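DM between two lab members

TW: hey, do you still have the L-arabinose transport system substrate-binding protein entry open?
JB: yeah, one sec
JB: this one, 342 aa:
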Amino acid sequence: MSRFSALRAAAAAAAIASLVAACSSGQNTGAAPGSGGAAPKTGKLTIALLQKQGDQQYFVDEATGAKQKAQQLGNVDVKVIDLGTDANKAISQLDAVIAQKVDGIVIVVPDQQIGPQVIGAAKNAGIPLMAADDAIKDGTGQEAPFVGFDGTQMGNSVGTKAGELFKASGWSLSDTRVIESWKQDLQTCSDRVKGAEDAFKTATGGDLPQQIKIGTDNSVTDAQNKASAVLTSNQNVKHWLVWGCNDENETGVVTALQNGGVKPDNIIGVGLGAYLTCKDWRAGQDSGNKAALYIGGPAVGASAIQVMVDHLRNSKALPPKTIAHTEMVDKTNWQKSGLVCT
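TW: and the structure you got?
JB:
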């Protein structure tokens, strides 16, 4: 195992206890859709992990955590499938793993609108299913068992930190703008952005600066390109606040501002993920990426496999929600958090 793999495994192991401990116990009034109910299984288990945007670092880490947990548990195979951003591919790959008779399914959907179809297909096949990262509902509005993060709480953390940094900067509302970038048809992202707005106002005891909302596909490239256009039409703005759905959005916008001539001292960017913001800190670069909420992809993947295996082997009910621990980091403390910056 490489040094990075070993560190990532250690970080996942440290976080898994808080993940499992955070499983909700107050919503077990009925079986969640996709939770299954078959007799315990013995022998080798095969669990399909279907992920949107599987090339993003967070999801790479999530898959790594899942595989490492499977190896630790023994006799468990994790089949990782990258869905990209294609909802049609998600359905076809789901059908494929169902046909292969996998024992369990964990899915990060590219589009939450396919939730009823995804849950229905797994239920009809008698295969337990969990949603990761983005919640999904069946046709009656009931959510599938979920592992990941609370979007509103994550946004609250980002907004609180941005508010603290804004107050310390001495900037005024009148000469500051907020760029918020996210995939606007994804409820998880909208929850995060709204949470950041509310928490910023609470932290500052006042209003938000004028907001500029950018719709993106949640990639660095799209965020950077669209922010560049925003800067062109806002040359007189002196100071910039930046936040969004993920590290890709925040770092893409910060890069666009800096490439456009805005000095890092005039940018307060607070990321969400920390796996990209940390690159400037590791390199010792002066950057507008001032802080980020560290979310542990490895721990989410590991937790999903642990919960699914407990269900399959020990008939433990799939918890309605398993919420992960998060931590705010910056250039002074990111290494102590267990974050592996690759």
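TW: got it. The first strand starts at residue 45 and ends at 52. The first helix runs from residue 3 to 21.
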